[in-house]
Amino acid sequence: MVQSRAAALEQVGSLKLPTKRDEAWRYAPHKSLGRLTFGPARGADALPQDVQRQIPDLDGPRIVIVNGVVDTGCSRLVDVPSGVRLDILDEMDDESVTDSSQVEQSVAPDAFVTINRAYGTGGALIRVDGHPEQTIQIVDVVVPNGAQNSSASRVVIEMAAESSATVVETRIGSGDKFGGSNVCTEISLGAEAKLTHTILQDLPSTQIHLGRVDVTQAARSVLRARLFNLGSEYGRVAYQVYLAGEGASADLSGLYFGTGQQVLDQQLTVIHGAKDCTSRQSYRGVLDDSSSGIWNGGVDVRPGADGTDSEQSNDNLLLSRHAEVNTMPRLEILADEVSCQHGATVGQLDEEALYYLRSRGIPKDEASRLLISGFADQMMDDLESDTVRSWIAERLERGNA
Amino acid sequence: MLHVENLTVSIGDTPILKGLDLDVGHGEVHAIMGPNGSGKSTFAHALAGRDGYDVAGTVTLDGADLLEMEPEDRAGAGVFLGFQYPVEIPGVNNMYFLRTALNSVRRIRGDDEIGARDFLKVAQEAMDLVEMKKDFLYRSVNAGFSGGEKKRNEILQMAVMQPKLAVLDETDSGLDIDALRVVAAGVNALRGPDRSMIVITHYQRLLDYIKPDFVHVLVDGKIVHSGDHTLALHLEDHGYASYVNHDLDDSPLSGATA
Questions:
Q1: A96 neighbors A129 (Cβ within 8 angstroms)
Q2: Model-level pTM?
């Protein structure tokens, strides 16, 4: 069960931050992590102009969280489609939320999860018992200022049995001051529930994003998790998906696209805890300049999880001699009759393809761009929302300019 | 139109072309035939501007020095190479690729970019020419295409780009007889007084469908014999043995790839 707030607050004073010796934090910029300062949520006066432009222009309900506090003015909580209850966590009794969310945390919480439990009092609670068509949007914004440069917030998504929904979480930051955001998402899927959950991470390259997503899935529930890890000096999202009921399936995919000195880190653990569950992990990375990517993808097949079917793939494109990627598929199998496949590739732009395009009159730079977006765009193919797709495409175009 | 004089090409330390001379006039179709490893494909790629070749000699197209140009500028100048092995480019759709290619050469040639509607007309005509299905435009470039589809796509691109000089590198390889007929019909439809072609092939078969004005035999990096289309028939009957034999002792062809 999720750690209680009281316990977290007690521990927060004596926390030890992760170090290079922690496998899951090995490539993180530890100095920068040490400069993050957290405290009780304080909010900001108004949503800054520079981040308003960065919010995907989706219709439908949304909750905007600024420095850990929900900005009711920017949120859209009226005309919420039927089958959805959207609540602001600040206004809720914490223990009731913790009880109802029923999320298993299979891996011991790290220091930043404890910080989130202690200070992440604000956020969004989404309860779905129906089939809303509109996308539900959560926007998390950090506006660093002197005393406390980082924010913590929490998103809880509860999918009732046989319900379905699409949630997009956009994580951004304002200005160019150092700071960061720490967002924990807890998702529970009832039997046969279906959730498509997308994270768009695009904080400024002076800031840090620490994301953590814990999912528990009941029988025959279906999760599609999409991660676009694009911004931040250090952009990290860690998924822990627990397939608790028979026949549950989790399909995780994502794109990380680094430039400059960025470090983009994806840490995945999918636990097969019941029979006949299916999981997919399919991630692509494009790394330019001196950026680096980390893909640490694990599949744990617990005793009794017979009939497990899992596949992992991680393909990377390095665009510069100084770019690097660390890709680590991990498998632990303690059950019978399982099918687990994994593969990872690291490559450069295909010279033959470049030549082919140039022989058709396309200048070298444009041919390179075409190949890069061809590689990256395939991760956007199954996005249902044109708005989200074009948001990503525009973001990548800006990044490449 | 195309003037090639004493062209030599080495890849690393291996000389492939050893002084090739060729003149192609406006509207002429020249076939280049030769055994495996004779340098046929290297010649095609030397014209298109592939990286990694040490090239010397003269190659001009209507007086312009091709060897000084990047591959994209050669395309702008009017060179088109139909690849023996068209490259698969997942994630890039044909429509976008073709339109970018066409507009790129139009820019180099000083023409205005073509609008979406006009482009669709051009693309549709080209698709009809090689009997490509409707969904073609929305598929990724060559990705998952059959051998025949890839080759038809090459001819389709040629139809869209309207080159002055088309170099077709073993366009017949890997084609069954029906696909060959479609490809050849496409090529023939694109013949004209303003378009010259170099058709590179190992077999005479293709030349039953695309009748060349001249046939050249390329052996060990040089053109050793030239004639009219009847030369191809002679080669079909007698092979390349009479050209190769006297060279066998002093020039192993290892390292040269077709």
A1: no
A2: 0.88
